[in-house]
Amino acid sequence: MTTRMKKRFNRNPKDKTIFFLVLFSSLSIIGMSIGFSALNTELSISGDAYVRVDEEIRITDLKMLEAINGAYETYNSKYSKDTNSMFVTLPNNNSTMTYQVTIVNKSSLNYKLKDILEESNTNSNISYEIIHISMNDRIESNSTITFQIKVTSRLDNQKTAIVLKYLFEIADNCQYNIGHEFAFDYTGEEQNFVVPCDGTYKLETWGAQGGNISNSCIGGYGAYARGSMKLETNEKLYVNVGGQGSTVLINPTIVRSLGGYNGGGYGLTDHAYNTSGGGGATHISKNSGILSSLSTENNNLSLLIASAGGGGAYSNNIGAVNGGCGGGIKGCNGISHPEYTRFGTATGATQISGGTTIMIGDSFIETSGFGKGADAPDNSGSGGGGGYYGGGAHVGGAGAGGSSYIGNSLLTTKEMYCYNCEESSEINTKTIRTTNASVDAISNYAKKGNGYAKITYLGK
What is the CB-side half-sphere exposure of residue 101 using CA atoms within 13 A? Predict the structure, then answer.
């Protein structure tokens, strides 16, 4: 006896009696067949036997609610588990007959109405309308729903037999509808996301902009990245949203312009320069911590997605330069101030290393690295943007952008967008150049201001 049948019998003692009567009868028949085999070796027993299980979804009632303008039933209406039949006579134009259908879901699962098939309508002059239910409507576990079918005639003296079949399928048993979004704005600290139910989720991240000096001297925009992956109920993800770099204007003392939260490098100013910090990265991970705290040895397992921040802007009384954008496969280079081109260019980060910072004397220092934009050297300059790898800083110029990350093998349907950046068609570094940027978090747009993250439930 199966476990399911045992549960059924344990609930109803009467079923035990029925079962053992059937069992006794079956043993008697078997005994008779063995004895009879000496006379006749062929014994055929035909027929169907079954035990009905109540834990199912089914139609439980079909009744006439209203008859208008002379309408009446030609025969009594009928219903089965998933079919209802209506036999109507509509003697006048606009005669109508309205039925109510009841469906009960006694199962432990949620269902939805997948389709209603018309198996018969013998008169094209008679139409029907299904009211108060639509395709994909949910029928929750242990619930009852009712809806109506209104049958109408377009001519006099019409009859029909309408047979409808209902198709149900197991619904997504998540408490959230498909397309539900979980948003993460900038807070300056780590935020948690606990997966509410098994399914596929879209992960989206926007890195932060580097610091602005003025409306015409701006930090590099943050990058955008997206990808989808399967997650399990109660799995915990950690979200760190990057902050925009700060700005320090001309100051009589040496002052740092702080980089944005989650990896933006700081700028450094003295009495003659305006500098700014790099924008922070935005990332989602299975491990807690800012991006630079995740080990490069295990980031392919823990780091799911990251969007780079842009480099900080720079100016003095002679001119101004914008920060390099946060990139996809590669961050944008910082721009040298015309007065300091002899010091070279702060370079954008790649998928394997941080950008470079150039010092006086043309020596290179790798002050950026995994998850961290470069800080300005001990002269004036602006900081690099954070990212998978951080962008370089600059002496006498703007910071470079970091790189983004979609290389985790769990991610599918993935790509990165960045402002006027280098492109890539490879699956794990797919990068698309855009000229769109917004302070609002818009898919496929580079990001102004602070970063942002969003997780969207896509269903099973």
Answer: 27
Which residue has tokens 């942002």?
452
Instruction: Give Rg (Cα) of the chain.
Output: 35
Query: Considering the entire predicted model, what is its pTM?
Result: 0.67
Nearest 5°: phi and psi at 406?
Answer: -135, 25
Distance, in Å, from the CA atom of 11 to the CA atom of 41, rounded to the nearest integer, reads 42
Q: Please, which pLDDT band fits residue 298 given cuts at 50, 70 and 90?
A: low
CB 229 within 8 A of CB 411: yes
What single DSSP character describes residue 397? Answer: B
Sort 169 into a burial class: Cβ within 10 Å, 0-12 / 13-18 / 19+.
exposed
- CA dist 446 and 206 (Å) reads 7
- Portion of the chain with pLDDT greater than 90, in percent: 66
Name every residue whose Cβ is closer than 8 Å to that of residue 12 and which is 6 or more positions away in sequence.
none
Please tell me the number of Cα atoms within 13 Å of 21 on its side-chain side: 6
Task: Give the dihedral of Cα atoms 31, 34, 38, 44; nearest 10 deg.
Answer: 110
Residue 48 has what pLDDT? 45
What are the backbone angles phi and psi of residue 182, rounded to the nearest 5°? -115, 115
Q: What are phi and psi of 339, to 5 degrees?
A: -75, -15
Residue 119, Cβ density class (10 Å: 0-12 exposed, 13-18 middle, ≥19 buried): exposed
Residue 232 neighbours by CB distance under 10 Å? 9
Q: Distance between CA 453 and CA 420 in Å, rounded?
A: 22
Alpha helices in 367-415 (DSSP H): none
Cα–Cα distance measured from residue 395 to residue 393, given in angstroms and rounded to the nearest whole number: 7
Percent helix, strand, coil in the chain, to 5, is: 10, 40, 50
**Rounded CA separation 207/378 (Å):** 27
**pLDDT of 356 higher than 70:** yes
**What are the E-state strand segments in 289-438?**
303-307, 314-316, 320-321, 357-358, 364-365, 412-419, 431-434, 437-438
Q: Quote the crossing angle between the two packed helices 13-36 and 3-11, to the nearest 10°.
A: 130
In 379-434, the DSSP E strands lie at: 412-419, 431-434
Contacts of residue 83, defined as CB under 8 A and 6 or more positions apart, other chains included, come to 59, 119, 163, 164, 165, 166
Centre a 10 Å sphere on the Cβ of residue 109 and count the other Cβ atoms it contains: 13
Strand spans (E) along 106-190? 111-121, 126-131, 138-139, 143-153, 158-170, 181-184
